Description:
By secondary structure, the chain is α/β, with parallel strands linked by helices. 41% of the residues lie in helices and 16% in strands. It has 3 domains: 5-189 and 206-232, Rossmann fold, CATH 3.40.50.970; 238-339, Rossmann fold (3-Layer(aba) Sandwich), CATH 3.40.50; 366-531, Rossmann fold. The protein has helices spanning 5-14, 21-31, 46-55, 67-79, 90-106, 131-138, 148-165, 175-178, 203-206, 210-232, 253-261, 279-288, 301-307, 333-339, 366-378, 412-422, 434-451, 477-487, 502-514, 530-536, and strands spanning 16-20, 36-39, 60-61, 84-89, 112-118, 142-143, 169-174, 181-185, 238-240, 245-250, 268-272, 274-275, 291-295, 316-318, 385-387, 428-433, 456-461, 491-495, 519-524. The strands form 4 sheets. A 7-stranded mixed sheet has the order 3-2-4-5-7-6-12, with helices on both faces. Helix 19 links the parallel strand 18 and strand 19. Helix 2 (21-31) crosses helix 3 and helix 15 crosses helix 19 (502-514). The longest helix is centred in the middle third of the chain and has 23 residues, at 210-232. Residues 1-10 and 534-546 have low confidence and may be disordered. The structure holds thiamine diphosphate (TPP). Thiamine diphosphate (TPP) binds next to helix 5 and helix 17.
Amino acid sequence: MGVSLLDHVWKNEMNAELLLGDEAVAWGAIDAGIAGAYSYAGTPATEIFETIQIVAPSIWAHWSANEKVAYEEALGMSYVGKRALVSMKHVGLNVAMDPFMSSALTGVVGGLVLAVGDDPGMHSSQDEQDSRILADFAKVPCFEPSNQQECYEMTRAAFTLSESHQIPVMVRLVTRLAHSRGLVKFHPDERARSQTRLPLPDPNDWTLVPVNARRRYRRLLALQTKLESASEASPFNVLHLRGKRGIICTGPGYNYVREALGSEMTDSLLRIGQYPMPTLLIQQIVAHCDEIIFVEEGYPFIEKRLRGLMGVPGVSIRGKLDGTLPFDGELLPESVSKALGAPAAVLNDINPIMTGRPPQYCKGCPHSSSMNALVDATSAYEEPLLFSDIGCYALGIMPPYRSVHSAVEMGASVGMAHGASRAGAHPVLCTIGDSTFAHSGMTPLLGAVLADANITVLILDNATTAMTGAQDSMATGDKLLEMLRGLGVKDLQVIDPLPKNHASSVEAIRKAIEHEGLSVIVAQRPCIQIKPRKLAMTLPVHQGEQ
Length: 546
Ligand SMILES: Cc1ncc(C[n+]2csc(CCOP(=O)(O)OP(=O)(O)O)c2C)c(N)n1
């Protein structure tokens, strides 16, 4: 991510910049007057937070330990009447679901906007999810931009809606939009908002003991009609009644429809950018048409609702559920063109000159030495179990290492190792990075310490969150060793994962395996990418910004 010279030229001449979707969300939040930004890194949402960190130093923006903590910190800021943005990738919202759900009941004071980056096609994720469903599940409104300008506008609108209805609001974007650039015009009229502070709320509204929670849940339910009216009237939900074929599209799907059919489109079109779903608009297009095609990025969220169990008599409903569009992966211009019976989209013929290259450790990566030591230390055993986690080290699944047997979700390795050892497996080892350990490895380790589980935990401390672009890590160096001792770890060794230390690293791992009970080894050596990244982060600050 960076602020290019070109961006500055645009901004100076037209009060506009060429921005990534992520950057546009960040600017929308800055211009809405946030006092704080909270996040834990995760593609494709990382640059939202990083932009705020770089361009707006007066806004509180420090990485949080994980997404749940990020959400709670943002909620605390909202409680005292200031606006806050919290951003994360889709699986991060799984981690933050608990405070997210409860915050729909407490409500908010200062506007609270949750920006979520979904990753259809799994460019950089362990699964595919559609966060609109989680907004619906929590009964909170959601905005879904189609382009970078809307990323900016909708983020601002989300803050207004959040404060006027005292409810958290989601902005959902997808990788294709988060990581591509478009021209964004600014209108920074609300920035002074961060100076003002709204009055504190009634503690009874925020203390979710059953008697209060029931009352607050009824309030949330009563709010739904108002939120639906806001969607019906939203400038982001646009209906054009024309031909008897109707298209209902959302997010970048709208761009592909426009590209396939051109601006002289004869079909009826409903473009949805604000939820809860605008039922009346949907009813109108369905009553007008005898065929509806859904072009949604993600799950067939609206399509499924409309189809229900029985369908709509007299109206053919097409989309992902009948195979008109593929269920998995991203929408593509060519699949949308095909679904609409339009000429195939012209594709940039770039693929033939790009050679496929499997991911691999960087030259000199300390994880590579750790994995080599792990392989040699366990080679004498018939069936060593090598659980791992999410981070660069998961590349140990590749040859020549083959030293990763699982990478399920952040923090899973320690608990899985503990579970497997209880079933009698031996030896059981796990590898986990320093950032992942801080995110969600400490609590399972606490359980393993208390039970003295017969496992070896190898913490690969490269002093950063390398996989997502080298963000700061909270559990590194001596601090990490102190934390481990504080958690009660007794058998603790430190190794320096360099090729020249291979023999002593192997010896340390063997010793840990032979130790009856829990052993922890910390492999301490900074990621070789840290230095270039830190330089890139010192890019010039946007002119005239806070
Ligand atoms: C819940 C969740 N949040 C964020 C991510 C994105 N992510 C993948 S790995 C990772 C952390 C990697 O850091 P670390 O464990 O220190 O390993 P490294 O890459 O530095 O080797 C992050 C933030 C994710 N996959 N899941």
